[in-house]
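Researcher: For the annotation table, I need structure tokens for histidine kinase. Please keep the output clean. Sequence:
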Amino acid sequence: MKIFNSKSFIKVPLRALLIVPFVAQISISVGLVGYLSLKNGQKAVNNLADQVMGKTSDLVNQHLNSYLATPHQINQLNADAIETGILDLRDFEKAGRYFWKQTQLYQNFAYNGYTLVTGQGVGSANYPGSKSTTIELYPLVAVKGVSKISSYVTDAQGNKTKLINTYDYNSFEQTWYVEAVKAGKPIWSGISTWDGEVGYIAASASYPIYEKSGKLLAVFGTDVLLSSISDFLRQIHVSQNGSVFIIERNGLLVANSSSQKPYVIVNGKTKRLAATDSPDRLIQATSKYLQQKLGDFDKIQNQQQLTFDFKGDRQFVKVTPWRDRFGLDWLVVVSVPESDFMGQIYANTRTTFFLCLLTLGVASIAGIYTSRWITQPILRLIQASQAIAAGHLDRSVEVKGIDELEILGQSFNYMARQLQESFTALETANQQLEEANTELEERVETRTTELQATIAQLHQTQAQMVQSEKMSALGQMVAGVAHEINNPVNFIHGNLTYIDGYTQDLLRLVQLYQKYLPEPPKEIEEELVATDFDFLEQDLTKVLQSMRIGTNRIREIVLSLRNFSRLDEAEVKEVDIHEGIDNTLVILNHRLKAKPDSSEIQIIKEYGKLPLVKCYAGQMNQVFMNIISNAIDALEERDRQRTLEEIQAQPSIIRVSTAAKGSTVTISIKDNGSGMNEAVRSKLFNPFFTTKPIGKGTGLGLAISYQIVTEKHHGKLYCYSQPGKGAEFLIEIPIL
């Protein structure tokens, strides 16, 4: 057995033995805590940044899907309205109010309308900076593709109140028209810019409409403002200095969360900016890095997550492609500075290292008890930091007795509270966005219900108008047929009896000649053979019988038509005056259209609320027919003496107004024709007085109308006119 000598060991003082390991342990522990805290903090920040950018990208994608689906849904709704007959694209007045209503419902629409293949069309505009919604009409036939557009201010009901502008516009050269026709289906035709003091950019949704034969009928165009997307991006709180922006594949900005707009206005012209030219330095730097790192933006097909340094600060970047089925292909870019999350962690790390140095000095004096006293709170800090790194943000530590460690614990708790508040703020923002989305869906559903009710009402009104037009046109046709056919048919039918008798007498005479002169001269015999007298004798009777049957049939048809015609109705009954006027306008509709030597005549109805009036319906319709026909004649005569520029500057208009005052109903029919002097006006109601050329007027129309109003209905008929100021006829009928 070997005995060791104690002198062979190096003697170490107990204090040193206690202090040195303790100091070494404290140094290692504090250093390890600082290192793990920094690494765990960085890992937590990376996860947090990834979650923040992911949620932000998802929110932006959801908003784009919802916001940019609306224009195409509206275009599809309008296409369905045409197919079901609710919307008539050639009725520009009603179509204008129809699209005005849609622009009122969707305030983010800068423009909503259509262009026919003739260059005609109508639309409603809600331009930024404008105080009211406008209606734009271009119903005149386009000359070489160029239409004259007239912009009107509207009242609260969508009625035109004031002409504010006219300008030339060639729809056939516009991208939204050309691209839609080329594609043959609903598409996005790109982003358009609008010039002016305010200026804006909008995405154009185009929808080609085809007839059943496959022929192009029109193209719908809906411009949706992109400024609303920027407004939405500004509402998303990514981080203190974070940024969100959207770009096209060509690098041009669509929208951004910066206070800077994605376009500039130079000399009244709106110019879009590339992301690399953005006034926002972070957007500019991020775009240049993406272009340098990934190359052409067209090559980015999948989600990319990158980091780069900007002004000495690391930036987290997430690029997400966004597409829809109508052709939009954008990139959503989210950029978050690491410093927004790492500031407190760096501060805590510096504090940790400071405490480490301070602890070394204290450990050399305090000894083992001090080391244990210090180790325990440090272990609690380690456990709390690991819990926070694992996602338990509600953990905190309580350190007492050592001032430096209390400061470390307070800093650590402060960091934990900051992280928890950040997550809580993000969850609150997400909840608010979800609530806003729910509210938006409810508003869209409400608007959709209102629009469906409006469409149903329009459908019912259209059905009533179509039926009224059919009956009115049929009544006018019946009256014409009865008047034009009845007399000649009666004449033919009455003379058939005499012709039949004369024919029988001639045949009997010829038969007697054949009986008593069986051998006529050769010339007569040859003529009998040539005319086939036997066949003529048999067929002539059949022909006369067929003619008698035919004339009887015509007389029956004419009698049926006369009985059906309302113009021959002599019974007094309660009728709707507006219905009679509308029927008359339907009958005269072919005369209101544009002709080679005259322009289209616009009808403006200003109907008041009228009760049913007892009158002779057919005779009152005749009065309306005579007065409106004279107004049309006057406008056509004026257009023949004017140039095209004069016609466009002052279009032909007939204004029909009604009102009820006391026991009297007043109907006003006013035109903007050449008018008449007092000498002509004073003789208007005289029989056989006319200013029309020979063969175009009898001078009885107004005389008969005056008699119907004053004698049949005990009313009054006036005419007010001055040269150059048109003419106005006032009809006053008592309510019996």
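Researcher: And a one-line annotation?
Model: The longest strand covers residues 160-170.
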